[in-house]
């Protein structure tokens, strides 16, 4: 080992939205003009300071900085290296507003595309690069935050997205030559990283962390060679801080050896998602002179760490690495701040959970146990063991009736009649026109609705008044849809805080948190529920609302549910059984609801599965096993009903390429799918994959406040009709409307219906 000081116990990153979502509030205040820029930065500074104080106070040896972000850390990286698109920089806004324009759009300039950060529910902004992109150290955020921390007395370790992950997450800007690959920019990008590293070194920075999670996914030989070139080059720099490269979210494959042999000083490995890294590193000689951060405390789930398992993983590496330190498996960005805020949780369950603050304690404890010996912290280890033992022994988490139902499942429980027969029966029952129009479920969540829900939750209004208010809203939304002329109506989802949390609050086996906010993108957060035991549905969850909506109209009202994979993807799930088994339990609960909706006279039921792509394993070798259980769980939730009951599903967040066969296999009668931004390209892919059922390509992008005009929607429809026959095609927006306002939604839906009628007329089937 070099004489460099060690990193020691640390975490790879920390939540940044604020324990009380302070950043969310100040951002939204700034965007709306209520808050000035100085206050925005003051709040941000306060949050950074609190975080450093917290991390130092917990007793970590090394504290990360530059883990704060005003919106997204990938966008920060693009801004840092001067790689924002010209359409945004040429607006000539302040640095702050240019950054937000890239994130959210401004003056007609489109924002960067947003997509999932690996298999998490966090979304990053996709940098746009081209052959003309140049990189310079245009910003100073890592340096500024380092100085800010030092002024407060904290020596920190700036964290950056690694050069390879940055390029691999970027896309070719529109209009650049077909053969352009962002990796072609590696050499100039490395120059810029080298410049930055030199500056940080001159400032006195001891360690820099470079995150390379992109190598937990399948990579080509060319990409692996680029990884090798990259860290040879950065490692060889004469004037630089210590380099820590962090790979997380799965098995790094041959990238692990490449990094082990490279001249970097330290590696962080994720031993939660990939325990095999312990043995794989042992085979790498290069590790003997490196510090290895053993990521044994889960950065993505919320269960207390099993200290014995964690310690044995870390201890096994003692013989391999120059030095072993304890860390989290990934950044803690994906977990809430503090479980102590959850006073509404049962004490026993709260005791089993560790949020970010509790995880700091676990890292420090394990670090001491590893280096000072277990007897130095014997009492604390015993306490940690007792909690894990208590959870493992809790027999009441298993529900015999659920287990018996699962044991009795047979293949016929996941099968419906043939699609052709179903289509006939459904048409006879629903009598829809060609190109039927519908929406994806939610209508705008107005301030009024949110306040009513909040008042009910806080007990300021009773259930009678609450139900009255929701019914009034449902009636308003039904009348509006009738006036607009939509064919299949929805109740609008006013009673739902979130499409997963709403169901979790009503299912046994789940607990909802009050303050467990996790950043989803920008200022938007979610509160993932905790799935801790066997899942079952004590009583109907949506039937009353759907039945009420249907009672108001002769048009079919579409019932609205969330499918099993999405419920799992957006919850913290139990880690004591296979995800496939948990999915089956959730599927049975949804199945019960589907059956009750059908019995209540609901003839169309949509079961949303937008996260089907999200849980797809990063490694293609694991895809088949995933699809098997994911598809089965959807089919289990949606079968055993009449042929005449029409099942819809909905998927959004693009990149459907990998899941096309699964979209067919789930056997929904109608699939609505995000398509507007890709100009309907997904339809050709679906056709090529042999998709033969109903499809509703989103004809306009709900993520933008722009109202699509009739010509535009008609054109999208005509384009879609080249790929899908008219008798299987539906007309709908891209996604739900809950984040939009009525000022846009009403004209947009009117135009959508007018366009559907126009295209019907062109085809000579206008007769209604
Ligand atoms: N779980 C989940 N994951 C998902 C999605 C999703 O819909 N759900 N969609 C994608 C991501 N898109 C998203 C889109 C919007 C929001 C979003 O708007 N979130 C809201 C919170 C939504 C919520 O749970 N709202 C609750 C609680 C709202 C709240 O903050 N209430 C106040 C008080 C009420 C008030 O006076 O407003 C408080 O608790 O302080 C409700 O409406 O009931 C926000 O950040 O603002 C999140 C993700 C992918 N992942
Ligand atoms: C993220 S997909 C949203 C589907 C849901 N039914 C809605 O309209 O909001
Ligand atoms: Zn959607």
TrEMBL record:
Signal peptide: none
CDD domains, per the entry: CIMS_C_terminal_like (cd03311), CIMS_N_terminal_like (cd03312)
EC class: transferase
GO MF annotations, alphabetized: 5-methyltetrahydropteroyltriglutamate-homocysteine S-methyltransferase activity; zinc ion binding
Ranges where the Cobalamin-independent methionine synthase MetE C-terminal/archaeal domain occurs: 435-757
Positions annotated to bind 5-methyltetrahydropteroyltri-L-glutamate: 21-24, 116, 121, 524-525, 570, 614
Domain of life of the native organism: Bacteria
Known cofactor(s): Zn(2+)
HAMAP family, A to Z: Meth_synth (MF_00172)
Protein name in UniProt: 5-methyltetrahydropteroyltriglutamate--homocysteine methyltransferase
Organism for this UniProt entry: Haloechinothrix alba
Species classification: Bacteria, Bacillati, Actinomycetota, Actinomycetes, Pseudonocardiales
Gene this chain is encoded by: metE
